[in-house]
Amino acid sequence: MAENTRRNFIKRSALGSVAMLVYPPSRVLGANDRVRVGMIGVGGRGQELLKQVLGVASAQLVAIADVYTGSREAAKQMAPGIQTLDDHRRLLDMKDIDAVIVASPLHIHCRHFVDTLAAGKDLYSEKTMTWSIPEAEQCLAAAKSSDRVVQIGLQHESSGSLADTRKWIKDGIVGPVAQVESWMSRNTPHGRGQWVRKVPSNCTAQNVNWKAFLNGRPDREFDPFKFINWRLYWEFSGGNVTENMVHQIAWIMTALDLPEPSAAFMSGGVFSEKDGREVPDTIVVTLEYPADTVVTWQSTFSNSHYGLGERLLGSDGTIEHVSGVTDMATGRSREVIRYFPEKANRREGTTLSGETPNQNHMANWIDCVRTRKIPNASVEVGYRSAIAAHMANISYRRKERVTLEMAKSLRPES
Question: Among 3.40.50.720, 3.90.1030.10, 3.40.50.970, 3.30.70.20, what is the CATH number of 3-157+362-378?
Fold first, then answer.
């Protein structure tokens, strides 16, 4: 991270602490009151979350803030009557907003996370929680010093498959789990790289607050391609690890009650998407945990046949969760979670299938805003999964196995 970025980061931390004293806490909600919601960032992912919150009857979308006029206009088409703002600080100043959804690009998550809590608003922060390990430490500290409800956008934490897995483990039918295998695969037509989006004609320097998007990074001429396709570059993104792996790693860590990894190693490269991207498209990650458990995750953007899934390999049984496996004859995919007994230790055991339905992750957050309960994807889960993702990326970029202590001592690379 550039030195001026570090200075701005420290300055924002101090301002966040001062703001805690300035902003009053949110109102107390009555039984018939709807939770009034604001959104920061309404690009592609933000618009998906906008649809989700509009579908929650006990929530009311009041306003959105985005640095790009095109995104603001699109949001207003989806939710006529909402107020649109070009500065997130103006949104946080609004007294008729109780809670805020942050769906800005990854490298701005920390600023919007801390500012939202400092403004006394409850928070839904899209995954991964932060762009770096120091930012994860800052966000965790801010959440712990606040009484606000924080949900991280790790939707797998609200899945029925996780509930079934935790039950089977609690029932003692899995036994110690020494190894977990996980994977995620995608594909696109030749010549159309994963994540690459066409730059809209109205994406111009006049219609984008480029300085706000850079968020303290070195100033340079407006680059519409990087603005739209920020996921391709380390300066703004953590690549596939922070976009996809983090969901599955959080699911695994919650299922097995794992802390941060003790060490990580990641190999791979840009093997199929030869379009100028910096982040790898083919990946193998190994995460070592202190509880005698090793987790692997592999991913490719050049084959989608096996979808995504996890296998928890216990001494007494195996849990297999598969989502997106494609039937080559019909083209259909399905999600299943099953338990298989290990006959060596559970001779009379039987195969089981999970039946717990998924919860609505957004509705869970809104409900917790009302009840003040801890949501399914707490800030602690967001923190641990972010640390795992950042350790993997640090290992890849340094081309060496990285321990937790080593990763926390390094300056983030932009």
Answer: 3.40.50.720
